[in-house]
Design brief:
301 residues; alpha/beta; Rossmann fold; GMP Synthetase, Chain A, domain 3; six-stranded mixed β-sheet; four-stranded mixed β-sheet; binds guanosine-5'-triphosphate
Amino acid sequence: MEAAPQRCGVIAIVGKPNVGKSTLLNALVGQKISITSRKAQTTRHRITGIRTMAATQFIFVDTPGFQTRHSTALNRSLNKTVLGAVGDVDLVLFVVEAGKFTAADEKVLALLKPGVPALLVANKVDEVHRRGDLAPWLQQMQQRHAFAEFVPMSAKNAKDVERLFGICEKYLPEQPWWYAEDELTDRSEKFLAGETVREKLFRFTGDELPYTSTVVVDKFEEEPSPKHGRFVKIAATIVVERDGHKAMVIGEKGERLKRISTEARQELEKLMGCKVFLEVWVKVRSGWADDEARVRSFGYE
Ligand SMILES: Nc1nc2c(ncn2[C@@H]2O[C@H](COP(=O)(O)OP(=O)(O)OP(=O)(O)O)[C@@H](O)[C@H]2O)c(=O)[nH]1
């Protein structure tokens, strides 16, 4: 019997903030690539996850939650990223919370291009207690857009995720793979380092910190290590808007910053499979002069 021809295609994951896009991407790629947190708007970059199974290579694109409420420069660029993602792909996973459809969902739906097949992914179906309630909702959804298929699922359920692969496969064109079989992301380790610090930052500050805070990776150096194969030295700066935010990130006696950097380091060591030395600084965007007050935090002592 002849082997199945190779398939390879790009799948965009779109949806308003907090519907579970990052959770889904991580489950699909099988390793933590994108960042997730309870805070809306944490996915600021277009992140690619790659998964190769049997004859098919799935290339996933995660997109920032489509922001409609405010119109800052940041939001405008977020929206541009979403637009970029939805156009040139083979398949769109339009993610919503099962049984719900808000004005924000509608804005994202309006971005879908007619020629590209879209699946309606009704996520968090585990939170719907009466499945029967979904039927009328589904009918309404089908009137809103000609979805190719309807997939009720939970991004946290491995069986649902497996099933989704089977559904997506047939939409991807027959063509040679673009990436090697074991590649998971085309993002650099330096990029992942910044994302990991940012995830911990938002996880440990909760809703207190505005999402305009960013993380800059100032240094990423590696050297061979006889004991661990290699040893990576990273310096990152958390950039915040105000002194008050800085104090919030640092926490009492530097405890919070220490937790952020320790957890980020541990996760990076797992991700990269080596020893990591991580230094995290906090700076106020406008006040670069207060260098003396900056707090240094070592990943390990
Ligand atoms: N109950 C339940 N919760 C889920 C499911 N999928 C995701 N979540 C939760 O929903 C929240 C948001 O998930 P994310 O994956 O960060 O959402 P997102 O759409 O990427 O959000 P942005 O980055 O803000 O665009 C997290 O607390 C997840 O744990 C699911 O299937 N069921």
